[in-house]
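Hey L., structure's done. Input below.
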Amino acid sequence: MGGGPASAPWELRAEYAGAPVSLALYLGAYLVRAAEDMPWAPAGALHCRFIGWTRDSRRNYSGGAATCEAAR
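Output:
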């Protein structure tokens, strides 16, 4: 499956079309690895990098995608 988080976001969205939970779980595994490799990195930044972009930015999530957009 896929090239991991190094894949372009649109490639991952296409590969996991119709399975957003599976995509989030897949990327969550990479989030855990990154947190272990970089314990100094802020958790919020890692979340935005690995999982935050998967949310539909047109929907109003409390602290979700809008927070990640503001952090860029």
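Residues 20-37 form the longest helix (18 residues). Helices lie at 9-15, 20-37, 43-50, 65-71.

-- N.
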